[in-house]
Structure formats: structure tokens, C-alpha cells
Amino acid sequence: ESRGAPFTVLFEGPADEALARRIVERLESAYWRVGGALTAYPAKPISVVLYTTEQFRDVTRLPEWTAAAYDGRIRMPVRGALEQIDRLDRVLCHEFVHAVVAMLGGRNVPTWLNEGLASVFEAKDTADAERLLARTSARPTLQELHGSFFGPPAGDAAIAYALSTRAVQRMIDLRGAPAVVQLLQDLARGGDFAAAFQQRISMRYEDFQSMVARQ
After folding, report:
1. Fewest CB atoms within 10 A around its CB: which of 23, 88, 101, 179?
2. Is the pLDDT of residue 96 over 70?
3. If you average pLDDT over every residue of the chain, what do you get?
């Protein structure tokens, strides 16, 4: 258990305390970086379940292309994780952002906003997302991405993540991260998404969707 930022590490499989310490250190880095940008920090400890064997996919039932999951706990496979430190940092940051979104927005946050925010903060920039979008003209609307991404095949899901990344980056460019936080808080109070979006981003949701689709 970390004595700094609120993380508790559990194991599914053989325990590895040295690995747990390294992962908590990297989570704490994400905690301060993301928390500082959003001025929001989880008040309750976050449990992190590390799958040290091949049990991760059996337990979470996620598609093969997923790297980890957040369902109230951060869950991730860790075999060989320290051999890919950059990727480990990105995955941990991504899932930590999901924990922050859950705290701020509750259950009413569209998937594209949740995943887009996590993707923006995990990466140094959005260049990879833009390169992927430049190679395809078949893109879903943001309205179509309010639900789970787990239905499409991996290629379609990659486009969904890229479009979500672009959309959230545009929101931040337009009104800043605090406006996104306020939108999440509106949703936690049960606010209508389109109305809350227009109030916080100062743009109709329909117009924003068109802007994101044509860029």
C-alpha cells in the first residue's frame, strides 16, 4: 500500500512487491500530473489489481486489443511490464484518468469523452490519432460513440479512440481543461449532455460534432 497518493495494490497470481512499488511510483507521477491539470484528485484510495499470470483476460472478458481496464479498480496484466516502461506509464496514466472521470462524472459520461480524456493525458501529443484519422474517411459520429467501444473489431475501435482523442483535445483547446471538468460535474448531477456541453464549451454539440468530423 502506498503511503503517498491513495493507491492500494492487490495481486491476482504470485505477489511481486518490487514490481508493485515501481507501479505505485509511476501511478503517483500520473496522480500529480493529471490531478494538477484537472485540479481534481480522487478522495478515496484506488485499488490496483496486477495480474501476474495470464488470468487477466479470463477475469475481465475484454477484447484482445485492450491493455488494461478500470471498473472501480485499475486492472492490468504485468508480465514483462518493466521491460516496456514507456508503454507501462501510458497504460497506468490512461486508467488513472478513468478513475478521475468516474469520480467527477459518475455513470453518465459518454464513452468518447471518457476515453478521449484518458488518451489525451496518456500521450505526449495527439499526432498518432491524427495520422490514423488522416488514413480513413469512414468515421463514426460522436453521438454513435456514447456507448461502449468493445463491440467493433479492433480496427474500428482504433478509429473510435482516435476520434475521441481529437474531440477532447479540441474541447481543451477551445475552453481549457477546467471547462471539461465542469462538464463532467454537470453530468454527475444528472444534467443533459447536449445542454451541459453547450454551456461549458460555448458551442452546440451538433456543431462541435461536425467540426470534429471534417477536420
Report:
1. 179
2. yes
3. 87
